[in-house]
Amino acid sequence: MTAKIIKFPGQRPCAAEAASGELAFGGATFDVVIGLVDGDPSHLRNASVRADDSLADLHGVIMRLFGWDDAHNYYFSQGSCRYEDPLLFSTQDCLSARCRRIYCAADVPVGRVLARSAPPLFYMYNLTNGRELTISLDSAQAMEQFG
């Protein structure tokens, strides 16, 4: 008898997928809610992003939604992983960055981080003044996807 492997939403990629860096999301889109960490409901923004888009692409969406000028570095963080602005990442030593779980935002698909059920995704822009956002799945989509 052979075992059938069923992938669940949010399941981490297998070793082969992780090594190749390629995940197939089949054109899926995520409806996300983006808001300042201060929790003020007037600062919430909604957007739809393709799962195959990179976190750097999501950064561009955030710039347009909030009307910011894209003149500063940024990074995303989720748990112990950090996804940096490509310009900021280029200053990292590759081996050291991998050990510290720092990745280039241009190389990581949105679907890889949003498909996980936890922990939340944070975004920091303008590192000196600290504009921090939280990014989460729209609650209706999260209920549909994760039950």
Number of helices: 6
Q: SSE order, as H and E?
A: HEEHEEHHEHEEH
Indicate the percent of residues in helices: 25-40%
Largest sheet: 7 strands, mixed
Strand content: 25-35%
Structural class determined from secondary elements: alpha+beta
- The low-confidence parts are 8-22, 141-147
Our measurement of the CA-to-CA distance between the termini, rounded to an integer number of angstroms, reads 30 Å
Q: What topology, given as strand order, has the largest sheet?
A: 2-1-7-6-3-4-5
Task: Write down the overall geometry.
Answer: globular
What is the CA-based Rg, rounded? 16 Å
Average per-residue pLDDT, rounded, comes to 79
Number of strands: 7
Task: Give a short synopsis of this structure.
The chain is built from 6 helices and 7 strands; from the N terminus they run H-E-E-H-E-E-H-H-E-H-E-E-H. It is α+β, with helices and mostly antiparallel strands and 147 residues long.
